[in-house]
## 1
Amino acid sequence: MPGSDSDSSARGTSSSPHGQGNLAARPFRADRVIVDVFGCIRASYVVTGVSMLAVKGDSAYLSAATQGWLLAGVTAWSAILFWSAHRAGEFSRWMVLTDCLIAAALVAFGTRQCVPAERLTWGNWSFTYGLSASLIAGASNGLAALPEVALLVVCFLFGLWPSWRAAQVTNLIGNTSEFAWFALIAFLASLFLHRIERKLDSAFTAQVAAESRRAALSARYTDQLINYGMLHDTVLSTLTAIARGGLDHQVPQVKERCAREAEYLRRLIHGGLSVSASDAGLDNVLSRLVAEADELGMRVRYFTDTLPDLPPETVTAISRAAREALNNVRAHAGTEQAWIAMVADGGGVTVTVTDRGNGFDQQRATEGFGISRSIAARMLDAGGVATITSVPGHGTSVELRWPR
Amino acid sequence: MRSAAGEPIDLAVIDDDRMLLDGLATWLAEAPDLRLVAAVGTVDELLDAPGRPATVVLLDMRLRDNSDPADNVRRLTAAHYQVLAVSVFGLRDYVVSAFRAGARGYLTKDHDLTSLASAVRQVAAGDTILSPELVFSLISDTSPDRPALSSQERAVLVAYASGMTLQCAARKLGIGVGTAKEYLDRVKQKYGAAGRPAHTKLELADRVREDGIGH
């Protein structure tokens, strides 16, 4: 039904089936076009009325003054109607009903006020006004406009009675049936316009989707450029330098550098070259932490699996706790090697920072040794928990679990 | 075939990375009990060589002839080599299938000489090595036909995958080191790494023939 369609589309985003883009951005609103066009038609009929009054004066009407008042009245009403409808973007049910009632009354009264000879001519401007009301009823209510059309027909016939003349039967039938034809044509036009509106809307939605895909790809491309930049600064320059003979790959520092950059490449491949430099996910944050540790001379192996999305506060808490744990390894474990493993656990995650270094006796540990207060506190605050396990001579493992 | 203790271990390497092979040869020169006897680029080359030149084979999972790593492992195991899978970068599915095909372990190539030598010695002695990178692949294995692990076995694996030593893992789970080792052994068995995987009827027939049962 055109009426109900116009409800959802005019009221816009949340009730519409597409729900994307805002009202102002959509290309074409069928109901608004209908309001504007029928407004022009109504205006043209009012102008006809004015010119009929001016040209024919008292010759066509029982009282030109009454006609004048009628004309002024419906013009005022039409102004209100079309101004509100234009603002709302459509004709509401009550607008259509009121307009029809006024038009019907006008058709009945205005026709009777005409001189009988004039009632089926252009001089009867009320009739043409009534037609424009039929247009609006047909466009807004479609087949449910039958009562309104019937009312207009009845009022017109009442207006004509008792001056029906056999000779004017064809005229009579023609004029009366125009109410129905106008309503039908308006209904069909409205259907057509709404169909075009739907097509334009889906094209618009598709365009918006394509735009956002393009933006995402563009962002990804930027990230890839950043990664390629990093590759250039690290792996490529190292390889080139070795190839040119400028770096001796037997030297321990160079070996370390090669190992670190190999680890970076490995992580990059694992992430499918889609590691976003700007992504604040836990995987990326920990990758960067590992890269920093590598810079400081540690050899950190990083194992990770697919993770759920985590809230940013959790990511911060876990990554800071992991950083501290890694610092502890550097400071106390007496080894350069560490492992960071991250596994998904139901809806949460468990991160372990492990070394195979000195370890310590947990029974005798004091506050400053072992899990520093801040690691435990950070995890607790974020709704997680930190546990430490250590065996003297066989390494230490700090487990960060979220949620508790 | 196992090496007797004290005898040098004959090692063959299947890898098409020329640079790596050269580096490895230099390296192994420093390990007196390891002898590099063959360095080839495909499994065929090794199997075509007369006799059985080596005990342990270091097999790169990614060979230029695009052969399936699991198939390579199967063929080598069928020829009674102990296979140690290595790669620069291991995709989980390949690692798991290589292990289930009978590889004795999986290591990334960035291990230093000491770890590599010790791994080769263990494998030569008939052990299966569970390195953290291998175990991590096992625990993220989602293939439908993976062996069922009890929760304790899985817990030990998870602890081990995060890099913990056996002692640390045992302490974390509140069990004895011996118990932890037992769980790991059970896992090895479940993954058919006891040395006799039978994946196809043909192989089963081979096994049967080997055992002297049937005709």
## 2
Amino acid sequence: MHELGVARSLLAAVQENVPKGIDARVTDIYLKIGRLSSVVDESLQFYWAILASETICEEARLHFERVPAEMACRDCGEMYSLVGDLEACPKCGSWQVFVVSGDQLQLDYIEIERIEERLLT
Amino acid sequence: MTKIRVEQRILNANDQLAAVNRKRLDAADVFSLNLMASPGAGKTSLIERMMPGLKHDLRVGVVDGDIATSIDAERAMQAGAVAVQINTGGQCHLDAVLLKQGLDRLPLKDIDLLLVENVGNLVCPVNFQLGTHVNVLIASVPEGDDKPYKYPGMYRGIDVLLINKIDLLPYIPFRMDYFRRGVEILNPGLTIFPVSCHTGEGLADWMTWVQRRLAAGVGIGVHE
């Protein structure tokens, strides 16, 4: 995946969600990345560090929550989480399975600190 | 410390511009396909093969994305389309910004069908919406039957799938049932067209599908 483009988009998305008119820094950014989405955490971290420098996100820490793909079996109805590659139903062994979710590439929430708060601590 | 819930796609900025592109296409009554594939799978060949059946009834535009050269745009023009080349300068996929540049250079009011040929790549393109109506993947037999398992994101993100070069099936150990199984797990119910741009086999059904979608005036819409 083109992590530079993702980092750029992420910076824009975070900045857009910081309320205007207050003096704040972003301290933490929480991302939800699905198993089936193709993002490499370290690469994203690398480009992020470059792009975020000299912005309100300069000191923000990226947190990656890796979410497994959720699968369902048509034959026995079992629902299961997929952490590795595609696999058959762990309950009945059928390959009549399908993906329910797993593509998330989501900016979940951010934490900001007002500058005055920082001065007081 | 204040917590702000966002719950937005990271690529939201691109998605928003894609939505603008889409509005523009709809306003000009242009139906559009985003053709994605590995390099060499047959994106340009498919366009060339489609043109004879389309050009008498429809005005076809092409936006071609490549790292370098205008080889593919030239082939599209030779085949009878009005085509523009976007050289991405190293970016491995088209995005909404680049498609906008392509749309700016085309006479949209004089086009009925827009074929966007994305950069050859099975990883990135599917994540960057362009604003086109239908995401198409052209898989090909020589690439091997395990590609759905290896590139789940791409196979999940498409609306229709072609398997090209079926004329090579007698020579290549491609297990069609294994391939289809992977597709069905990732994208249940996906319509698949086995074709050969070389012999012409299977293309009539694909063309019918495209013409029906165009006449209906809507994309499938699963990935909006």
